[in-house]
Design brief:
This protein has 123 residues and is mainly beta. It is built from no helices and eleven strands. Strands 2, 4, 5, 6, 9, 10 and 11 form a seven-stranded mixed sheet that branches.
């Protein structure tokens, strides 16, 4: 059974940092793009960042560019999201996902999802 499990969320003050982890089990995703998305109540889940299997290709949403860094460790089947200079508007549930096909920045292109981890940034 394939599982993606996020961890590392929490409450942080504006300007602070958090590092999210997403551990995959049940199969290897070393050949897949892995992405991070986020969602706030009442809004659609939005793209945050994605990284190719080799790590050579990375894309970020404009809203997080320069502040967030996505990385992966294929030996551990784990993807990370380092979040620096956090802002209150970064508050959301963050989800990791494994890409199936299509554009790597589209939510619909991902077929495995974690349960999410809450990130709350206080002002």
């Amino acid at each position: 059974q394939v599982q993606l499990v996020e961890s590392g969320g929490g409450l942080v003050q504006a300007g602070g940092s958090l590092r999210l982890s997403c551990a995959a089990s049940g199969r290897t995703f070393s050949g897949n793009f892995m992405g991070w998305f986020r969602q706030v109540p009442g809004k659609e889940r939005e793209f945050v960042a994605t990284i190719s299997g080799s790590g050579a290709n990375i894309w970020y949403a404009d809203s997080v560019k320069g502040r967030f860094t996505i990385s992966r460790d294929n030996a551990k089947n784990t993807v990370y999201l380092q979040m620096n200079s956090l802002k209150p508007e970064d508050t959301a549930v963050y989800y990791c996902a494994a890409h199936a096909s299509g554009s790597a920045t589209f939510r619909s292109s991902y077929n495995y999802w974690g349960q999410g981890t809450q990130v709350t940034v206080s002002s």
